[in-house]
Amino acid sequence: MDGLGFGYQALKQEKPDLIVISMPAFGNSGPYRDCIGYGLMINSLIGIDDLTGFPGRTPPGLPIAYADHVAAWAATVGILSGLRHRRKTGRGCFIEIPQMEAMCSTTAIALLDFLVNRRVGRRMGNRLPPYARAAAPHGVYPCKGEDRWCAIAVFTEDEWVHFVKAIGCPDWTKDPRFATILSRSQHMDELDQLVSVWTRGRTPDEVMDILQKSGVAAGAVREIPDLVENDGQLRARGFYVERQHPEMGTTLLEDIPFKLSDTPGGVRRTAPLLGEHNDFVFREILGMPEEEINQYIVDEVI
């Protein structure tokens, strides 16, 4: 933007209370300033991908450009801070939010642990790291069906008692290896195998319902079709809305994820077709003469 004459220093001469936000991959200074970056690449560069997966295996990494979302959250806070500054001083400001720096927050305790203790975080699968609160069992367990799973976490001795009752008090739960949270944590592999025997005989939702009713944290691992076809919560909230598309017909869409009390808003229409609003933009908004528009059409510009 600076090269085009639209940098912040130039713009604030015209409007001193202007707030400008810049969201480069790496920042406007430093050795990476001119490098092109994408969300998936940022995931790897800040080390979060290295923490995913199981010990001794290749890290799978995050399947989405998580950095894009995290940077947007940081930008929201930055803009609100800029608005507060303007309200107090009457002046605008320039806000810089590099994706790489925003994403460092997602490494959470792993980064702090290295800064303080020089301890390197390792891939642990579904286990909790040593500095976290102990939980056993803790993991994602196989269930009835093809590649179906349910997450289970037992943090306290009371929860363990409820868990044992919920799964029918099998004999193995009386084993001294599983008597306390500490001993269970020391025998997680054996514990996971025994818990899996119980979960394999039930669907993820059955496991979740049984354990939740007993006060044990559990959540079915959803597949995308589950979110659309089987999730009663999202449907009850009106998260999916039907709209008519001129070419696709009735289409199911995601609604906006926030609701305002006085102006709830929502998805009113489907995405426009290519060139659908050309006339409105060129004639009504830009006020272009008919001859110029027609010439652009002939030249296949529009």
TrEMBL record:
Q: Name one GO molecular function term.
A: formyl-CoA transferase activity
Sorted UniProt keywords: Transferase
Q: Indicate the transmembrane segments per the record.
A: none
Q: What protein does this entry describe?
A: Formyl-coenzyme A transferase
Whether tRNA processing counts among this entry's keywords is no
Keyword Disulfide bond on entry: no
UniProt cross-references to Pfam families, sorted A to Z? CoA_transf_3 (PF02515)
Task: Give the enzyme's EC designation.
Answer: 2.8.3.16
Q: What class of enzyme is it?
A: transferase
Leader peptide range in chain numbering: none
Q: Which InterPro entries match?
A: CoA-transferase_III_domain, CoA-Trfase_fam_III, CoA-Trfase_III_dom3_sf, CoA-Trfase_III_dom_1_sf
Which Gene3D superfamilies does the protein's record reference? Answer: Crotonobetainyl-coa:carnitine coa-transferase, domain 1, formyl-coa transferase, domain 3
